[in-house]
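User: Can you write out an input/output pair for a complex, sequences first and structure second?

Assistant: Here is one pair. Inputs:
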Amino acid sequence: MNGSDRLFEDRTPGVEEQEATASYLSYTVGLALAIVATIASFVVSQTNLLWPPGIPVGLMVLAFAQIGIHLVFFLQLGSGPDHTNNILALAFGVLIVFLVIAGSVWIMVNLTSNMMPT
Amino acid sequence: MTITTIDRPLIAVPTELARGRGGGGPAPKRIVVAYGFWIFILSDMIMFSALFAAYAVLRGNTAGGPTGTELFNLRNVFIETMCLLLSSYTCGLGALSAERRHPGRFLIFGAITFVLGAAFLFIEATEFARMVEIGAGPSRSAFLSAFFTLVGMHGVHVTSGLIALVYLAAQVIAKGLGAAILRRLLCWSLFWHALDIVWVGVFTLVYLMGAP
């Protein structure tokens, strides 16, 4: 197999120039999983199914799971060569989002706990 | 004696087979456009992260006013969530039909997406109006300021998404499904899916963690 052959075989399944980027099946599976995750979130928040102090953590886990489902099944983010740049950009975005949210909460909780009691 | 590597004719690889690693020339326009729009979406996410951080910090500062437990109606939030989720689904199916060159099917899915998005906005606007009416407007407390900013900003994005959808549908009707319009549709569907991702954060942090 020479170089040009490899180039022609080097494809991401489902990602071709003018073909569909995905199938109806992928969206339907994504929808089903997302609905399950959503219902699970609402059920967990409203019942004592989880140990009550652990509910926020459970909700966060479910939210991250659902975001992952959206990224893979709706935004069609895959591991193919077409997506390398997108994944890297996403990783950088996630880093900044994490720094902004976690940093703000950390600083402000620290500030609040050091305030003089009123 | 010739140097064969120079004499050998270059294999002309069609640009659409390029994969952004230098081989075969530049990546196809569709990939490049989607990448640029993806960067925009990520910057939008970073903006939302600042609003999420503000809300997370200020959620307890109710200044003696109503708390989330008293204000939020989880049944409505669930309906809103389902509207947005289903509209994300129909938006995906619409983009798929457009790529398969079925303008009629695209318009049907686009119309369903629009109706679901509009239903979401209607429920949200009624909630906001009800809250302002009972004196829980954005000026009542820091918690409510942060709430209206975060949820309102998401609502503004949904509104602009709906306007863009109407604009795109008009383009599809007027010009058909050309390559340029397909790229715009791709960007629009990325935007719409991203809004649903932000909403996952909103209903988890604001509504579910705020209403025991």
